[in-house]
Amino acid sequence: MLDAIAGNLLKDFRIEFRRRFALNIALSFAAITTLAVSLTAGGVRLAAQTQAMLFWIILFFSAMNGLAHVFTREEEEGTALFLRVTSPAAAVYTAKLLFNIAVIFIIAAVISPLYAFFLNVEVASPSAFAAATCAGCLAIASSTTVLAAIVAKAGSRGSLFTIISFPVVLPPLWIAIGATRAAIAGNTVAEGVVFLLAFSGALIAVSYMLFGHIWIEE
Fold first, then answer.
1. Which of 98, 151, 87, 3 minimizes the C-alpha distance to 79?
2. 45: DSSP letter
3. CB 54 within 8 A of CB 37
4. If we measure between CA atoms, which residue out of 180, 193, 175, 137 comes closest to residue 47?
5. Neighbours of 136 (CB within 10 A)
6. Mean of pLDDT values over 128-153
7. How many domains would you assign to the chain?
8. How far apart are CA 199 and CA 156, in angstroms?
9. Cα separation, 50 vs 134, whole angstroms
10. Cβ contacts of residue 77 below 8 Å, gap of 6+?
11. Among 23, 71, 112, 197, which is disulfide-ready with 148 (CB 3.0 to 4.6 Å)?
C-alpha cells in the first residue's frame, strides 16, 4: 500500500512539475485577481471581514482548476484504467489527496504575501493567520478530492467541478473566513481551526468509504 501511494504521488509530482499546467494557471489567476482587487480598492484599507472574504474567494477560485486536474488528467490521457488495475483504490485516493493538499498549500503560500502586500493588510497575529490558512486549505482539499474523481468522468469538467464543490466547501469556507478575520484583528482562532480540522477528518473518512465505489467501474 505504501509503495503504491508513494509511486502514484511521485508520478503526479513529476508530471505536474514537468508541465506546470495546473499551478501556472492557478498562480496566474491569483496574481491577476489580487492585483485587480488592489487597483479597485485604490489604496483604501478594507475592513478585516472584507479582507478575509476576498482572501478566501481568491484562494478558492484559484485552486479549483488545480484540484480537479489531478483526476481529469488521468481520464483525458487514458491512464485511469491502468491505475484501477495496478493500484488499490485507497492508495489512489491517498496519493491524490496528498497531491491536492500540496497544490493548495503552494497556492496559499504564494497568494498570502502578495495579498498582504497589494491590499495593505496588517495581520495582528501571523501565527494564527497561518494556522487558519492551513486548516482552511486542508478542509478545501479534503472536500474536493473525491468530488474531482466524480466530475472527471463528466463532459464539462472544469465548470461542473466548481459548481458542485461550492455547496460542500461553503461551510468550512465560512469558518475559515471568520478565523482569518480573527487572526487579522488579533483574536483567537482556536475554535475555527478545530472545526476545520474535524471537518477535514470527517470528510476524509467518508471519502475513503465511498471512493472505491466511485473509482472502480462495476
1. 87
2. P
3. yes
4. 180
5. 29
6. 90
7. 1
8. 28
9. 20
10. none
11. 71
Is residue 192 within 8 A of residue 132, CB to CB? The reply is yes
Taking only Cα atoms into account, the Rg of the chain, rounded to an integer number of angstroms, comes to 18
Spell out the residues 6+ positions from residue 166 whose beta carbon is closer than 8 angstroms to its own: none
Give dist(CA 99, CA 7) in Å, integer. Answer: 12
C-alpha cell at position 82: 491502468
111 is written with which cell numbers?
A: 497568494
What residues make up the domain containing 189?
A: 2-215
pLDDT (average), residues 194-202? 94
| Alpha-carbon gap, residue 149 to 122, rounded angstroms | 39
Strands (E), the chain: none
Cα→Cα distances 214→7, 66, 73, 108, 160, Å = 21, 20, 17, 29, 17
* CA–CA distance, 29 with 216 (Å, rounded to integer): 34
Given a contact cutoff of 8 angstroms between Cβ atoms, the answer to whether 63 and 140 are in contact is yes
Is 72 in a helix, a strand, or coil?
A: helix
42-88, pLDDT tens digit by residue? 767 788 898 999 999 999 988 887 787 788 777 777 777 777 888 88
Distance set, CA 68 to CA 57, 99, 163 (Å): 17, 11, 12
Q: Give how far Cα 44 sits from Cα of 37, 40, 47, 54, 57, Å.
A: 11, 9, 10, 14, 19
Contact present, 93 and 207 (Cβ < 8 Å): yes
pTM of the entire predicted model: 0.88
